[in-house]
Specification:
Blueprint: H1 2-13, E1 29-34, E2 37-43, H2 49-60, E3 67-73, E4 77-84, E5 110-113, E6 126-129, E7 147-153, H3 155-162, E8 166-167, E9 178-179, E10 184-190
Antiparallel strand pairs: 1-2, 1-10, 2-7, 3-4, 3-10, 4-6, 5-6, 5-7, 8-9
Helix pairs in contact: 1-2
Length: 194
């Protein structure tokens, strides 16, 4: 049954089996190589197939290479994947369906998709949860933010990302919580299947 749901989700997302990374692996792992160290994340295709395929499409294209972590709020989230070191927005694919109702919660050490107020607006930006962030989960009030994996090693690196000094007001963008020297995501590699 799980594979049937997965196959249907792939059809809906427009990703063919030929394009897939490790198509027979429901829990592929990826390594985030950052200026602060490495983080290994296990993705969950069983519960977030559309989100995982979308994320892996950006990974396969090398589109996360040399992007920054542009939003850091200690005890809340570290967000990245959308901008170059010059704060230029990276190319986005079409927005995806929000899979926040998949049963995975925005708990400490999970990775989820960032979005704007439209629940189905997630494209490429992601964040790591630095706490059990119940406010980001779906509720009777509305959609949540889709969790699609969890950190399996490099929690200390995630915490290093969270400890960088931030600005209250970033002059170039006007945003709060921007690191004075944003950590760089040099590359995301798919971990070979064992």
């Amino acid at each position: 049954m799980r594979y049937l749901v997965f196959a249907l989700a792939l059809l809906l997302s427009g990703v063919s089996a030929a394009q897939q990374i490790q198509p027979d692996n429901l829990f592929p792992k990826v390594k985030f190589i950052t200026t602060e160290g490495d983080i290994v994340v296990e993705l969950n295709r069983a519960k977030a197939p559309i989100t995982v395929e979308n994320f892996l499409t950006y990974v396969q294209a090398g589109s996360y290479n040399n992007t920054i972590f542009h939003r850091v709020i200690p005890g809340f989230v570290v967000q990245g994947g959308g901008y170059t070191e010059e704060f230029e927005a990276k190319t986005m694919f079409d927005p995806i369906f929000n899979e926040s109702g998949n049963g995975m919660l925005n708990n400490y050490g999970t990775i989820a998709m960032a979005r704007v107020s439209d629940p189905h607006s997630a494209t490429r930006q992601f964040y790591f949860n630095l706490n059990d962030n119940e406010s980001l989960n779906p509720s009777s009030k509305g959609w949540g933010y889709a969790v699609f994996g969890w950190v399996v090693s490099g929690e200390d690196v995630m915490e290093k990302l969270a400890s960088v000094e931030t600005e209250f007001y970033h002059e170039q963008t006007g945003w709060p919580n921007v690191p004075k020297q944003p950590p760089v995501l040099k590359k995301i590699e798919v971990v070979p299947q064992q």
